[in-house]
Design goal:
alpha/beta; Rossmann fold; GMP Synthetase, Chain A, domain 3; 5-stranded mixed sheet; 21 helices; 25 strands
Length: 583
Amino acid sequence: MARTVPDLLFACVDRDPDQLAVFWPEGGVFLGMTRMDSAREVARLARGLADLGVGKGTVVAIVAETRKEWAHCDLALLCLGAITIGIYPTLLREQVAYQLAHSEARIALVEDAEQAAKVAAIRDQVPALQHVVTMEPVEGHPSLVDVACDVDLDWLRARAAQVGPDDVATYIYTSGTTGPPKAAILTHGNFVAVSEATLEIANIGPADRALVWLPLAHALQRFTVYRGLLEDGVGYFAESIEKLPEALVGSRPTVLATVPRMMEKVRDRALSAVQARGPLAKRIFEWAFAVGHAHLACREERRPVPLGLRLQWRVADRLVFRHIKARMGGALRLLICGGAALNPDVARWFAAMGITVLEGWGLTETCAPATLNRETDFRFGTVGKPIPGVSIRIAEDGEVLVKSPGTFQGYFKDPEATAAVFSDGWFHTGDIGFVDEDGFLVITDRKKEILVTSGGKNIGPVNIEQRLERSPYVGQAVAIGSERPYLVALLVPDAEALEALARRAGLPDEPLGARLQRTEVEALFQDAVREANRELAQFETVKCFAVLPTAFSVETGELTPTLKLKRRVVSEKYAAEIEALYA
C-alpha cells in the first residue's frame, strides 16, 4: 500500500517504465514521454532544487498555468519532503504577495517573464523569498533548465523514502469568497487516501486518455494527477484554457475532469449553432435528443433498452451526437464534474449523447472528492454517495459534516479558524444539504450565502441563479435580497448567444450595450425571469432585475480563480444598480 505521493510515482514507474504516459503541446502537436523519462525529469528537478536548499518542510510556490513542468516540479518537491503551494497566475500582485508572505515561501517557480516581473515587484513584501526560478527562459533569472541536474533515480528514491504520510504535502489557499483566503494544510496521507478510495468508482484503463486543463493550484486537478499515477491511462496537458478547444481535438480525451461552466458552454454553443441552421436541422436535433433522453431514462430506471430504441439512438448519434462530440475530440466517454453545482438538465443533455457524467462534491479541505456518483449507481441532481472511508452527517441546521482520512489538518497560522470548523472530529463544510432515501447527497446552498430577507425568510440563492441561467441568453446571474423586502437579480448576458440571435434576426451589428436596449432583447431576459419564477415559491421569486453589459471575471474581481462568485464584491461594485431596483 502506498503511504505517500512519491510511493504512487515509483509504483507507477515500476509497473511499466516504458509506457508513454505524459503528453504536452509543442509546435502545434502533442509530444510524449515514457513513465521512466518522466520520473528522470522529476529526479533532475529534485536534485537541482535540493542544491538551492530545498529539503523537508521547505515551502516552494509555483506560479504558473497548468503544464507538465508544474506537475513535474510538484512531484520533485514532494519527493524532497517540501511543501508546494500553487498560486494562480491570474492573481493580482497584492494577492500573490499575501500568499507568498503568509506561507513563508523560500523559492518561487514562475512560468514566464510576466510572472517573474510580478514577483519582482513585490519582492520587498516577501522577506523569506530567496530564489525566483522560471520555467521559460527569462533574462536575469535562472530557469529550470539551468537548475536541473543529472542524477540517478535511486538518489530520488532514497530522498523520497524519508517522507512519511503525516508530512505536509501542500498548503492550498481557499477561494476567499468571504474574506482573505485561508491555507488548508493537506498531507501525503490525505492525498493517498482519497486517490485509493476513488480507484474503483471510475475505472480508467490503459486505452483511456485524460486531458489536464483545470488549474493545478486547485485541489481537484491536483488530486486527478496523483490519482492518475494509480492507473494505466495517459495524461495530456492543455496549453492554456483559451486553447482548450484545440487541445480537446488534438488529444481526443476519453476522460475529462471538468467544471459546470465548461459543460454549459458546450451545450449553449450547440443550441445556438442548430438555431442558425434552420427549421429542418432544428427538428432533427430535437428528435435526436428526444431519443437520447428516452434511451437515458432506461439507464436511470435500471431497465433494458428496447431494440428499436437502441437502433434509433444509433441513427441519432450518426446524425447529431457525433458532430457535437467531435468538438470535444470525438472519443469522450466520461465527464467527472465538480467545483460548483451542475444543472441536472445539462448533465442529462450530455448523458443523452452517451457520455457518462459523474458529479461529485468536495472542498479543498476534504482533499477534493468526498462524494461521487458511480457509473452504475448515479442520480442526477445529486453529488453521489460518500466515497469509501468518508462519513457524512447532517447537522440540525442542515450543514453537511464530514469525517474522513482525506480531511485536512487545519488552517496554517490560523488556529481560531481551524477550531471553528471542527467539532468532535467532524469537519463543518459550510454547505447546506440533505441525504435522500437512497443515500445520495444533495447540496442545496452555502451556509454563508443564505439570504435572509427583512421579512425573516431564509432563501438559498444558488437554486434561483441556476434557474435563471437555464436561459441560453443569461450567462451569469446573481440573486440579491439580504435584509431587503424581496429578491432582485443582476443578469449578465451570454454575448455569443445574443450575437447569434442578432444574425438570425437580421439586427444591425452594434455594441452589446446598445443591443441590450432593444425591446426584443429586453423581452428575452423578462422571459428568463418569468420562467425561473414559475418554479419558485412566492417569497423566492425575483421581482425585478438589471442586465449588466460587462461579464463577471477573475480579472475584474467578481470571480475567484476557481470561478466562484464573490457576492460581497458584486454587491459593492454594483451598489447603485441594486439600489435602483429597490427605489
